[in-house]
Specification:
single chain; alpha+beta; 5-stranded antiparallel β-sheet
Length: 486
């Protein structure tokens, strides 16, 4: 590897060194002909990485783990998880590697992590590979979420490997280089607890406190405070998902972070026509992870986290359970408060008027649901209605009399149109545009993906020439289903 890389990339191996019980040293498979498809230059700069180097042959090999600094200690991470409600005691990174941690411009650590880097001892029956489409989907969706100010893992690059991967057909292989505050999951704690290694569990909890919830360190019961901290960040996160119509698709406990970041964009999508029962995952046959169920699933996952931590919360298990249950009872209140505050902001309503606002929110969502109106476009059009032009919004509902009555009551509260435009996006990764971009990239053309990324990178500012990025899918598109890519 060239000297430039060694002098500018300094990996730290905290997880690999401190949690050897959860880390298997491993190496990424060699890619026969790696080619950079997309690079997040702004994120690279925040991480102190030279974009020019990353575009070079050595840099591309670095991005997929084929050529890393000598101090790097790549590992496959172990974790457990409830998948669609069924517990698996040993999951882990079957096709992923943690290269190590680097220091972000904000002074805090970030994980550099690979997806699609080859089989590991956790691979089970998988081939360890990933393909261009799903890796580019995660890049587009995660960067859109970041632009929407929703906590998320980030995407640094997608690199085509030059190999072919067997799925429904032979598809071009790819590796995603992902960046996260950490990859600690509820499933990490489930794994530690399931091994009955209380020393490991305590070290893992202390690490989570130091890295993500430092205020818990000063509390008399630091592990109860950790539980409360994770409940708080997840309540806010899921409220933000719901506010933008995001459906994660696979809310297994191994896909819930301790940091409160969105992770693992598999069969995910932004809802278009408003439907509380929206499901986009091909494997979610019962609708467990439907849009409306996401808060309930988050609460269920957090209960599994509480079970894993209980032995640290109090030595008397009855008291531990009582304390954990009390903490968990705070989730619904915190989620509801975050969601309602967000909906008030979307309607341009400031402080006060909570009773009127609550009724307005409930009635509006009912009208939107009846019409299956495009959620994103409708809320954006409400900003026009606040300025006096109600027709774009009126054209999207069925019960005009009810909507006109609603408008009169809403306008009486003097909604702030400019504030609405700052929280109601005009550009999201619309499903037909995502599929168009993935199909083109699979054929070697990244142009549509780059144009979509440019649109969603500034989601609140309307720009001429981007009209198609603000429009719902044509009637010929759908019903929409996504796949996890394995």
């Amino acid at each position: 590897m060239g000297g430039i890389a060694h002098s500018t990339i300094t990996f730290q191996g905290h997880f690999a060194r401190d949690f050897q019980e959860l880390a298997i040293p491993w190496r990424a498979e060699e890619a026969p002909d790696p080619q950079l498809l997309v690079l997040n230059e702004a994120l690279a700069a925040e991480l102190g990485l030279d974009p020019d180097f990353l575009r070079s042959p050595d840099g591309v090999r670095f991005l997929i783990g084929n050529d890393v600094p000598p101090e790097a200690t790549p590992v496959a991470q172990a974790y457990a998880g409830h998948q669609f409600g069924w517990y698996s005691p040993r999951l882990g990174d079957g096709r992923a590697l943690l290269l190590g941690e680097v220091t972000h411009a904000d002074g805090r650590l970030r994980d550099i992590h690979l997806k699609g880097s080859g089989r590991t001892p956790f691979a089970r029956n998988g081939d360890g590979q990933a393909v261009v489409g799903p890796m580019l989907r995660e890049y587009i969706l995660s960067e859109s979420m970041h632009a929407l100010n929703i906590p998320t893992t980030r995407s640094l690059a997608v690199v085509a490997t030059g190999s072919s991967v067997q799925r429904e057909a032979l598809l071009p292989g790819a590796v995603l280089t992902r960046v996260a505050s950490s990859h600690l999951r509820v499933g990490s704690f489930q794994y530690a607890r399931n091994t009955n290694n209380l020393d490991l569990l305590r070290r893992l909890a202390d690490h989570a406190i130091e890295r993500h919830h430092p205020s818990a360190a000063g509390e008399s019961n630091r592990y109860l405070a950790l539980l409360k901290g994770v409940i708080a960040v997840q309540a806010r996160l899921v409220a933000q998902w719901m506010l933008v119509g995001f459906v994660h698709g696979v809310m297994n406990t191994d896909n819930m972070t301790i940091s409160g970041e969105t992770i693992d964009y598999g069969p995910c999508a932004f809802m278009e026509g408003f439907d509380p029962g929206a499901v986009y995952s091909s494997i979610d046959e019962t609708g467990r992870y439907a849009y409306r169920n996401q808060p309930l699933v988050a609460e269920w996952n957090l209960a599994r986290f509480a079970e894993s931590l209980a032995v640290l919360i109090h030595e008397d298990q009855d008291q531990a359970v009582d304390l954990a249950v009390q903490a968990l009872q705070g989730f619904r209140e915190q989620y509801s408060a975050a969601w309602f505050a967000g909906m008030k902001a979307k309607l341009g309503l400031g402080s006060g008027h909570d009773d009127e606002a609550s009724a307005l929110v409930d009635e509006l969502l009912q009208l939107v649901q009846e019409a299956r109106a495009d959620y994103t476009s409708f809320l954006r059009n409400l900003g026009k209605a606040a300025r006096g032009d109600a027709e774009p919004a009126r054209r999207m509902v069925l019960d005009l009399a009810a909507f006109d009555a609603w408008l009169e009551r809403w306008r009486a509260l003097e909604p702030d149109a400019a504030a609405m435009d700052q929280v109601n996006p005009i550009y999201i990764p619309r499903n037909h545009l995502v599929e168009e971009a993935l199909a083109a990239a699979t054929q070697g053309d990244t142009g549509p993906a780059e144009r979509l990324l440019e649109a969603v990178a500034t989601p609140y500012s309307e720009r001429p020439g981007l009209e198609r990025y603000a429009e719902p899918a044509p009637d010929s598109f759908g019903p929409y289903r996504t796949f996890c890519g394995t």
